[in-house]
Design brief:
The structure is a single chain. With 479 residues, the protein is an alpha/beta fold. It folds into 2 domains: 200 residues, Alpha-Beta Complex (Maf protein); 230 residues, 3-Layer(aba) Sandwich (Rossmann fold). It has 16 helices and 16 strands. The strands form 3 sheets. Strands 8-7-11-10-9-12-13-16 form an 8-stranded mixed β-sheet, sandwiched between helices. Strands 2-1-3-4-5-6 form a 6-stranded mixed β-sheet, sandwiched between helices. Strand 10, helix 10 and strand 11 form a beta-alpha-beta unit.
Length: 479
Amino acid sequence: MSISLKGDQPFENIPSVKAKALRINLNRHIYGTFAEIGAGQEVARHFFRSGGASGTIAKTMSAYDKAFSDAIYGEEPDNRYVSESRLKKMLSHEVNLLETRMDRENHPDKMFFTYANTVATIDFAKQYKGHGWMGIKFQTDPKDDFSEIHIHVRFHNFEAKAQQEALGLMGLNLIYGAYYKYDEPRKLLKYLYDHIDADAIEIDTINFSGPLFSNVDNRVMSMELIKNGMTEAVMFGPDGNNILPARVLYKKNILAIRGRFRPVTKVNEDMIDKSVEIISHQEGYEEQENLTVFEITLSNLRASNGDINELDFIHRATLLCSLGQTVMITNFKEYYRLAEYFSNYTQEKIVLTMGVNNLVEIFDEKYYNHLSGGILEAFGKLFFKNLKIFLYPIKDTNDGRIVNSNNLQVAPRMKNLYKFFKYNNKIIDIFSFNEDLLDIYSEKVLSMIEKNEKGWENSIPDAVTKLIKEKKLFGYRSS
């Protein structure tokens, strides 16, 4: 039996907090439980306050004590309780209880849901702002399997009460959106911030799953987070799935390369391989403590008309993931912002691998006019104690000479600043490069693919060539 959820109230006319909760409560088909750990019953209280909750809320609970929580949901092997793993266990456990205790024969038209969160708000010393996971497992037809939405949030205000209030509102918006905007996930995403100060809370990871979202690409939804200003960086693992940046970057040595990767070429591959080779010879190197990241800025995803080309983005992400790489999409136009972001999660070594042209741009003052301290402020954030630049050379198109850190040209005003960083071992040349690759340019490769010219396969990795041909990416046409 399919139950219509579309009411007579236009979703675009943002309803009040009470109106949202009341609309859920008055829908006799929606029925579920709330399980909230760490920040109190902030979401459930909206439904209690609005009235009519007896027909909607089966149970609310807060297994606040760790030992009691373990007794209900089981222990976490890594001892991390503010985690997606914990959220999944909470959702599954509570839904199972709901289905076990509510006989379907007696309740054939009930659409079950469980909302859960596990949250750590700001600490007493105000050194740790806090973060959390929230999610909903729900159905819009009693006969359907459950769908899920998982969200990771980071708090940016400095009062525990304000954080709890923001969490309560976002949880309410999530439940409301799940039932009344599940068929338009982009709008659902935007409406998560209804009645919330956009600067108060950040969503840096979101995952949709289940039959209602079978056509949703979570990579595209993650990009929506950046486009909407909800976060500044998202990450995908080699399997193509969203991953939480804080979890994978935490206490890692990071090697990052920025580019358009349209498509990824053998030059990009050589830059990373040679950088890893340098790092691997350093004392105390352990592979599991190092993470390689391919970063694409939002500006590099825009088409000529300024719009984001989502299909093109999916193509690039797919190719990079096929090489076993971790992909990061950011809103960081300047390199110093990327370095600053990494330093929020690790105090270990950070290496930025780049070409000569990129380094010359870094030393161009015009990119820092918006900073009160200009280029010196930017460099203070870029070249912090554990950051180095690995420099990949280019071939001068005029005379064929190899350009590296010893003969590149920066603006006259920047020469002494450049020398300071170079001779303090912050800029390291990659000398073991493959000179045969220096004539490869991704723009030329892309043009050859689009024009169906022969020979482009020689410029990109074999795995990438295979995928481009199989999936007909970047306008490829078989002969």
